[in-house]
Structure formats: structure tokens, C-alpha cells
Amino acid sequence: FLWVVLSNTKKLPKVKEEEKEQVKNDTKDMDFWEACQYTANEKKKRLEKIKKALVYAMVIALILTFFIAIKGYFADLIIVVIFGGIMFKSKIFGAYNPNDNLEELFYRDVWTPIFTEHNYHNVHIGEYGSINDRSIGLVKDDESKRETRSVECDEFKYNRVEYYHEVRSYDKERTSETTTFNGFELFLPCNTGVNEAIRLVPSTTSSNGKEKINNAMSVKKQDGEEHIDIEDIEFNGNFEVFSKDPHSAFYFLTSERIEKLKELRRKDPLSIVIQNDGIYIAVNKFQLFFEMPPISVLQKCTKETFETQFKKFEEMLEEYRKIL
């Protein structure tokens, strides 16, 4: 029985690769919506396989249990249950997921054309972005970083990101994750005219004295920087300003920009870095854009569904562009 388990487990990578190639061959001439229907059908077939496997597993388990119970080999019964569970899980849940192929088509046939139609150029949609957030002091470093979606084009960069670290609970003997940042980052390219970077990070105190500031965004004074006070009480209560060149900070932070920054800060916790090539923004707010929904939801979606989502993203983008 152990040999059967190990031999089946050993074959899994090959079986998974064969299924992956089969799915790619089946969908190579399909557009996203055709592939969506194909994936839904494949899921139905897989569900039928699972049902059959469950029936066979139950019959075999009953026979083995009856035989071993009669013989009195209860230790052997435990071993059979454990290895049977391993084999069943490996065979059923280790197979290739057709959703993996569908996601590639989703971004190619749904989102990329929408960006193109709205006059965004050289669009690339992937999982990892190129915003060097930690090196420029946009957010504080943490043990681990998880990125789920990135959109980069000539007009902007967007990155969905989460920072977290593991916490060991010795009394419960388990490990959990503590999230320190769960939001998105933007880069808006432009010529800001500043000589040195200006960093605006959330103040450790807020104007109302009640808000809890997330320390992951409070990257304090770095080497060579000066702390700069702005002649605005509310602004100083929400942001701390750092730069190696105070003149650049005063030059950029006009009264109109200060008012806009205060308005944005009232809505969400955010950190901003202004460099000569543009503005970097980190917003600690859970908000999903461009993620592929479950197949059951996708079947009810149309192009207008994603156009509506894109409109919301553009409205948000315009709000931050007003800083420029």
C-alpha cells in the first residue's frame, strides 16, 4: 500500500505538466470568454472525478476497515487511513488548475484592450512591480512582502502590495501573520522641478488626536535629511516632511498643494515621496483593482463590468494627479 502511495505521488509532477500542456493546446486559439467557458466545463469534469474518487475511496476504506477490524490490527488501520488520505489528496488536489492559464488570457483580452482604448501606452500587467518603495523611504521595511498585481505604462505605475511579518505564539504553538501595510502604490511621472527628494510621511500624532497611525508608513528622518515644519497646523498634524534640501520642499509645497494633500490625508493614510522624475504614493487602504474574479463570477461579467471598474480607478488616479 505504501508503494502505491509513493509511486502515485512520484508521478504527480509529470501528470500535472501533461494536464497543463493539454489545457494550453485546447485554449491556444480561444479568446478569454471562450476560455472562460472551457474552464467552467473543465471544473465540472474535475468535480465529477472527485465524486467518483470519493465513492471508490469510501468502498475501499469500508472493506479494509472491516478486514483489519476482524483481524484486530488497529495500528495498521491508522496507517491505512493516513496513507490513504495522502494518496487521495495528492491525486485529486495536486492536478493542474486550468485557472492558471485563464488568468493570462484575462489580462491579455480584457484589461490590456481597455487600457489601450483609453490612450494608455506600453501597458504591461503582471504580478511584480518596479516601484522601489523601501529604498526611497516610501514605506518601512518588513520581514516579508507580497505583491499580487502590477500595472505599468508610460502614464503611471500601479502596484498592489502587502507587507507582513510572522508572529510565533508559543502558548498555542502556531505561527500567524501580522500585516503592517495592505494597500497600493502609485508612481506618477512628471518633472517636479525639485533638486532633492521630499518625503511626506504620516505624523505620529494626528490633528484629532485619535487616529492610530500605521508605523509601516512612518519612515522617519534618514541620513542627511532635515525635518521641515510647514506653516499649517493641520498639515503638520498629519504629515512630517523630510528633505536634504528645505528650499525644494518649500518650493513644491504651495498653498494649493498643501490643501489638496490635507484633503487626501483625511480620506486615507498615505505616504508620499516627491522626486525629480515624479511622485510616489503609498496608500494603506485595501482596495482591489484588476484582479481576476472567481470563474462563477466571471461568467456573469461583461466588458462593461470591467469598464466600470476602470472608471473608478481613473477617478482615483485623477485625484492624486491633482498633486502635480
Care to give the gist of this entry?
It is built from nine helices and nine strands. With 324 residues, it is of the alpha+beta class.
Tell me what you see in this structure.
- The protein contains nine helices and nine strands.
- A hairpin with a 4-residue loop joins strand 2 and strand 3 (157-169).
- It has a nine-stranded antiparallel β-sheet with strand order 1-2-3-4-9-8-5-7-6.
- Mean pLDDT is 80; it is low at 89-94 and 207-212.
- The protein has 324 residues and is an alpha+beta fold.
Q: Could you give the distance between the termini?
A: 68 Å
The whole-number mean of residue pLDDT values reads 80
Structural class by sheet pairing and helices: alpha+beta
> What fraction strand?
15-25%
Low-confidence stretches: 89-94, 207-212
Please specify the SSE layout and strand pairing.
Elements: H1 2-27, H2 32-71, H3 74-93, H4 99-117, E1 124-126, E2 144-152, E3 157-169, E4 174-189, E5 198-202, E6 226-228, H5 233-238, E7 239-243, H6 246-252, H7 255-267, E8 270-275, E9 278-283, H8 295-298, H9 303-321
Antiparallel strand pairs: 1-2, 2-3, 3-4, 4-9, 5-7, 5-8, 6-7, 8-9
Question: Keywords for this structure?
Answer:
extended; 9 helices; alpha+beta; 9 strands; 324 residues
